[in-house]
Amino acid sequence: MTIETYIDSLVCYAMNHGLTQPEDHNVAVNKLLEILHLDSYTPSQEPVVEDLEEILAGILDYACEKGLCQDNVVERDLFDTKVMGALTPMPREVIAKFRELYKQSPQAATDWYYRFSCDTDYIRRYRIKKDMRWKFPCEYGNLDITINLSKPEKDPKAIAAAKNAPQSSYPKCQLCSENEGYAGRLNHPARQNHRIIPITVDGADWRLQYSPYVYYNEHCIVFNNTHTPMKIDRAAFRKLLDFVTLFPHYFVGSNADLPIVGGSILSHEHFQGGHYTFAMEEAPIAQAVTFRGFEDVKAGIVKWPMSVLRITGPDASRLVELADKILTCWRSYSHPEAMILAETEGEPHNTITPIARRRGSDYELDLVLRNNLTTEEHPLGLYHPHADKHHIKKENIGLIEVMGLAVLPSRLKGELQDLAVAIVEGKDLEADPVLSKHAPWVAELKEKYTFTAENALDLLLQETGRVFSQVLEDAGVYKNTPDGLQNFLKFVDTVNA
Predict the structure, then answer these.
(1) In sequence order, what are the beta bridge partners of 221?
(2) pLDDT tens per residue across span 375-410
(3) Which residues contact 124 (CB under 8 A, 6 or more apart)?
(4) Omega cis (within 30) before 284
(5) Which residues contact 274 (CB under 8 A, 6 or more apart)?
(6) Is 141 helix (H, G, I), strand (E, B) or coil?
(7) Residue 154 banded pLDDT, cuts 50, 70, 90
(8) How far apart are CA 261 and CA 351, in angstroms?
(9) Residues 369, 351: Cα–Cα separation, whole Å
(10) b/e map of 349-375 (b: 16 or more CB within 10 Å)?
C-alpha cells in the first residue's frame, strides 16, 4: 500500500466523520504532505482504507522508515497525534457546535462531543477494545472488573529517553487547558487532536473533556480552568451538584483531597463523571438515619463495602448544608477504639470522597468516609488494599474503585493466563519469579475448586473479582459487621449532637 493511499484514506475518513469538509480537501492533503516531508503528491488509484487504526499504522510505518519518527510506542503516539491534529477542527468550531446542540438537550451535546473525541483519535477506540472487562456478582451487587490494556506500556528505551528529556513547567500538569493543541514531548503526551469545552460551574470558569482511557461509558473529566489544588469543602459539594444540574444524565464525583485515599493528581482541582451506572448507585440503603434539622433530607447508610452516607432531596442547597456539616464533623472525628484518628502529629487523616447524581427531580450525594492512617502492620494505609491482596491490587482506591469498578494493572492479563496453565499442569508456583506472588492465593482456591483446563481461567477471573470486593472492604473505615454498624451510628450521633 502506498503512502498516497494512506493519505487519501485519512482525508476521506476525516470528511466522513465531519472533521473536515469537501472544500477543505486540498488543505487537508497539504497539511499531511508537510508532516510527512513530501514535496509532491498524486492521488492513489488504490481503494481507500476505512479502518483508522490501519490507516495510522501505515502512515507511522512510513514515517519510521523515512526517519521521521522513532519506532517505539511513545514517539509513534506523538507522531500520529500530530497527524490527526492536522485534521481536527479549531476549538471555536467545536465549542460552537457543542453549544448549539446543548440548546436541544445536554445529552445531545455530550453524545456528539464524545463521538467527536473518538473520531479525532483523542480517544483511541481500538485500544479501549483491548481492555478486559467482566462482572463479579456479590452481596454488594455486580462489581465491574477491568484489566487496563488501553494505556500502552513504555519500553525501557522510551522510559530512559523521557527521564533524560529537558524538564518543562508548561503545561503545569496534564489537566491544564494549555494541553489543548500541545505537541507533547517524550515525557508529556501530545494533544493536537484534543478539544475542550468551556463551562461555568458554580459561577466559576471550568472545562469539560473526556478521559483518553475511558474506564467506563463517556468517562469525562471536569476541571477548574485555574491550576489550583484539590479540596473537599462546602464549595466542592456546590460544584458537584451544579454540574449535575447542567448535565442531569451524568453522575460526577471527586477524588478525596489527601494522599493515599486521594487521586493521582491532587495539584489540580477536578472531578470525574460520565454516563454510566455503577454498582454503588444501585446499592440499597442498609440503615436509614435522620439528621437533626434536616428531616426534609432522606438519609441512610448504604449497603456497600466502604462507608457511605447517602443523602437525597429536591433542594440542592439543603444537601450542600448537610454535606458540609457531615464533612466538618468527620474532619475532627476520632474514635480510637475503632481505629479512627482525625490526626496524628498534626497530620490530618479524615476526608470524604463525594459523588453526585440525579434521581428524577431529586439530587443525591453519596459521601464516602475516608481515612489515610498508616500503621506498622499496614504502612501503605490501614484503609488501603492490604498486603495479602497486593498481587491483584496495590494501587490507591480512588473515586472509580470506590464506586465499584476495579482498574487492574495490565500485567494481570498475562499472569492470570499463565497461572491457569500452571495450576492445571501442577507447576510449582513458588519457583516462578512472576507467579510466586499468587501462590498463597492459589493454595486457598485449590481447597475451594477443582481446576480443569476448561474452567481454570474463568475461575481465576471470578476470584479476581472477589479479591477486589475484599479490597473495598479493606478500604472501608467501618466494616460490615454489627460492631462496624454500631460504630458508624456513633458517628451519626456525633453529627446530631
Answers:
(1) 209, 272
(2) 999 999 999 999 999 999 998 899 999 999 999 999
(3) 150, 212
(4) no
(5) 216, 217, 218, 219, 220, 250, 251
(6) strand
(7) low
(8) 9
(9) 6
(10) bbbbbbbbbbeeeebbbbbbbbbbbbe
- Least Cα distance to 474 among 400, 393, 351, 384 occurs for 384
Run of H or E including 463: helix 456-475
**Domain coordinates of the chain in residue numbers?**
3-126, 407-475
| Tens digits of residue pLDDT in 180-222 | 999 999 889 999 999 999 999 999 999 999 999 999 999 999 9
Query: Are 306 and 402 spatial neighbours (Cβ–Cβ below 8 Å)?
Result: yes
Amino acid at 465: G
Tell whether the model's pLDDT for residue 121 goes beyond 60: yes
What is the Cα gyration radius of the chain?
25
The dihedral sign for the CA sequence 333, 334, 338, 344: positive
Q: Which residues contact 308 (CB under 8 A, 6 or more apart)?
A: 280, 283, 301, 302, 366, 367, 368, 369
Place of cell 479476581: 464
Q: How many beta carbons lie within 10 A of that of residue 102, not counting itself?
A: 19
Residue 445: CB atoms within 10 A of its CB come to: 18
3-state DSSP assignment of residue 50? coil
Exposed/middle/buried for 38, CB within 10 Å: 0-12, 13-18, 19+?
Answer: middle
Q: DSSP of 360-404, one letter per residue?
A: TTEEEEEEEEEE----SS-TT-TTS--GGGTTT--S---HHHHTT
Grid-cell match 444524565, residue found: 249
User: Do strands 270-274 and 285-289 pair parallel, antiparallel, or not at all (unpaired)?
Assistant: unpaired
Q: What are phi and psi of 295, to 5 degrees?
A: -65, -20
Chain centroid to CA 263: 10
Total-model pTM: 0.93
What does DSSP assign to residue 188?
A: B
Write the single-letter amino acid at 446. K
Chain segment 155-164, per-residue pLDDT in tens: 555 555 555 6
Give the number of other Cβ atoms within 10 Å of residue 28's Cβ: 20
Cα 124 to the chain's mean position, in Å? Answer: 15
Cell 463479579 identifies what position? 136
Question: Quick one: cell of 436?
Answer: 510466586
